[in-house]
Design a protein that fits this description.
By secondary structure, the protein is an all-alpha fold.
Length: 274
């Protein structure tokens, strides 16, 4: 019992951190202390009972803007991981079942996309489509799909080499049925760990895009844009930079801990070997 509790700690801690941010994002859909365009708080106001995190250089409530940033981070995480998962799994399955020359072509394409920095690829896509939250989600999702595709291809190849696949084919089972009955159930646990890691990376990439002015446009308040705005007043109002920065770090660390915990659950042999 003690061993199980100790080794579930990463999942608990990570889930708590991400759950807190997700709760903040959910609450921001229905309520924020102030409108994000309300400038009546006074320029660079200190922490108070009216403004728990103070106000920014335009008099806007920082807590409200940080809550909106949490909503953007969660939306980008889910959206980009979903796009990357759909594209990556489909391409990986095609490559895994394809003939040798097609497989090698796909593998080369995956390697090129993986070698190309995701942030730079996202910047190019956002620049072509225009800066918006949708553009950021699509760009990050496409950038992550190559990693998912390559991993899916490797996992599919490994499963196809098993004896039960040969037995299924000999019994007349179609390839479509094999994919849903044998392939996907045997690779989804590994893919979920990858998706968890990519969720945190997506939030970090979106913050980087917003910091460069290529994320969600105003009046949206991404954590990256909050950091960019706060750098000019970091000495006089450090909370404006600390709050979004800490939450961004919590999101990334939390998702990494969740991924670590999921990997332990999916493969108990790793847990016993520690």
């Amino acid at each position: 019992m003690t061993r199980k509790r100790r080794h579930s700690l990463p999942l608990i801690v990570g889930g708590t951190l991400v759950g807190f941010i997700a709760l903040m994002a959910l609450i921001s859909i229905f309520w924020t202390p102030y409108s994000i365009q309300d400038m009546t708080g006074g320029r660079l106001g200190p922490l108070s009972s009216h403004h728990w995190l103070g106000t920014d250089k335009l008099g806007r409530d920082l807590l409200s803007r940080v809550m909106i940033g949490a909503r953007i981070a969660i939306a980008v995480g889910f959206g980009s991981v979903l796009i990357g998962a759909i594209l990556g799994v489909i391409l990986g399955l095609v490559a895994g079942f394809a003939q040798r020359w097609v497989d090698e072509s796909f593998s080369a394409m995956f390697d090129i996309l993986i070698a190309f920095p995701t942030l730079l690829l996202a910047m190019l896509i956002v620049a072509a489509r225009g800066a918006s939250l949708t553009s950021a989600i699509i760009a990050i999702g496409i950038g992550m799909s190559a990693i998912v595709a390559r991993l899916t291809r490797l996992l599919v190849k490994r499963v196809l080499a098993k004896d039960f696949i040969t037995a299924s084919r000999a019994s007349g089972t179609s390839w479509a049925r094999i994919i849903f009955i044998h392939i996907l159930p045997n690779i989804w646990t590994t893919l979920i760990v990858t998706f968890a890691l990519q969720f945190g990376f997506a939030g970090l990439t979106e913050a980087s895009l917003s910091y460069l002015g290529l994320g969600a446009p105003p009046p949206n308040a991404s954590w990256g844009s909050l950091l960019q705005e706060a750098q000019a007043t970091v000495l006089t109002s450090p909370v404006a930079a600390i709050a979004p920065g800490v939450l961004l770090v919590c999101l990334v660390i939390g998702m990494n801990l969740v991924a670590d915990g999921l990997r332990d659950v999916a493969d108990p042999t790793l847990r016993r070997s520690r």
